[in-house]
Give the backbone structure.
Amino acid sequence: MQRCGQPGCTGKVLSDGYCDTCGTKAPAPAPPPGKPPAKPTPAPSAASPAPAPPAPRNLETGSTRSGGSRRTVSGRTRTTSRRSTIGAGIVDVPPAPSIDPATIVMADPEVSEEKRFCSNCGAPVGRSKGRQPGRLKGFCPRCRNAFDFVPKLKAGDLVGRQYEVVGALAHGGLGWIYLARDKAVSDRWSVLKGLLDAGDEAAMAVAVAERRFLAEIEHPNIVEIYNFVTHAGAGYIVMEYVGGPSLKQILKQRREANGGEPDPLPVDRAIAYVLAIMPAFNHLHRRGMVYCDFKPDNLIQVGDQVKLIDLGGVRRLDDPSGDVYGTVGFQAPEIAESGPSVSSDVYTIGRTLAVLTMDFRGYQSTFQHSLPDPAEHPALAANPSFYRLLLKATAMHPDDRFQSVPELADQLVGVLREVVAVATGTPQPGPSAVFAGAPEGDGLPVLTVDPADPAAGFVANLSSDDPNDVLRSIADALALKQVTETVELRLRRARAYVELGRRDEAGAELARIEADDPWEWRASWLRGVMALDAEDPATAIRAFDRCLFEVPGELAPKLAAAIAAERAGNVAAAASLYDVVSTVDPSYVGAAIGLARCRLKAGDVPAALAAFGRVPSTHRAHGEAQLAAVRALVGADRFAEAGQVLEQIQAAGREAAQLDVELFEAALSGLTAGTVKAQPSVTVRGQRLDEPGVRQGLERAYRTLAKLSPDDPERWRLVDRANHVRPLSLV
């Protein structure tokens, strides 16, 4: 079997050509010598067009968008390869011990009253009245649908002439789940899950035939389907037994260990579990299937891997007539009207993350389709990017969510890096799928080009040095019909207008992009950049705020929002964002320097020095940061420390001489004004910290700077100042 060629991935390429671990398509094998490569065949669409939903709400204004058509997923969704082992190489999750199946069979299988609901309308059924216990069989008082909570199978029953029932394991949405031994395969442990109770053999045969497509699903993170069988008028999916705890059981164990009080999973661990199951969702979606019923019950940890179990709710996107199964509190709000979709699966993933990380009371009632106040939940209050990710993943309208699992996974990895870095203080840098990496100095990174765009190659090869040349090249290529108008071409044109300060033309170009695709957040990014150039921080803040919610795992929007906040005078907000960016990735040196500026404005010199210290020693801005640290110390009258830092750095020539002048000028000013106390026992750059010593140091600094000055008048001025400040001497 061919191994995956992605860097850092240890997976194998399955028969469909995709890696079983990272989900990336393997490159086609090289053709034999002399034989031309075969032309690729375009893959058919997995889903038929969905009905048009109500117009989605605008994230910024709250108004409905015009157009009314359902959002379509384009090549704009990108992803980088990710490893599927738990933790994504960022956090360590302890392996789970395997569970002996014989130990978890229910001795007295019964569904508790509070969990008895009608499978048709969801109304409570089988409830007690006074001293009369609730019925296990009967009819729903609301819709008259029959209910039956009595297990249909008992120990010893032989199902499908092959599977000997050991007992009941649990009760799920489709009925009881049983443990069995496969008598045809060496008593292999198997799990039987009810499909439905059709009432007649003919209908059951049709139902089983319709579900046989599940046997085609082969993925290491998805429970294997062995068979489909009927027994006494009921159908069952036969699955492999997965011996490990579900996330629901892990939460229960944590509660019990915490004295009966809820103990949600740490955010990093919850994200690690969900990231590890992303390849399974991607595998289903690529084959035109949706899972529909994701929740903590259906993800099991097996050693150091995870598996999706319970495929009873899996539907084909091209089968709108099939029943849709879901769970209140996890199911997307549009399911009843529009049916399941990739976006509705994204919704269930977001809701699962919320339930795993919070004491989320009311998630099936008060907060059935919303999130609680972050101030009341530490996981949200301490991790604003995680909160933003949950808001986007669980947006009420499907068009406002992440449009694919790889898109969600990319942002989840970014959020995980941030959560771990902020909690531990250890940097967690990583690549971005949409930005070109850390910028130089105080600048902002540029957007990368979507390789799926038809004009991607042309745009990527455009020179970025002269925006006028960029505009001419685009115009010429369009005139010669070498390229067509695409979103990447328009974004590059808009960026050139921004760089030239042609704001009216940039605004018009961005408006056209947004009219075609109201969800194109990159237009908001360029609007923010343009607003910063125009010294309009209020507009920049609004633009970058949208970017923060659209790509919550990216560092670039946080850096941009910090710059805008600082320019608007909100130093505290700016410092918080600068702190996050420079903690996660020290190569964003502009964030460290920005944080130092904010700390100095707040009067916290030690914190400012610590921020300057975040600039990596290997970065070319390191010297600049150290010089800024010297000036910060001088401004705080910490002259001895400033001198020590100055002696350690590599400043030379006029730069070093100028710093010497600033240091001794400030010291002399403080000594003569009485704000600095003379300390003859303390030395500053080899001079005593008293007036005679400081004057000698300043005289020397002036003369050194004069020798290095190329301008005669300036040189004479510095010599005059040296003569003026030198200490008096007796002849």
Notes: The chain is about 40% helix and 10% strand. The chain has a mean pLDDT of 86.
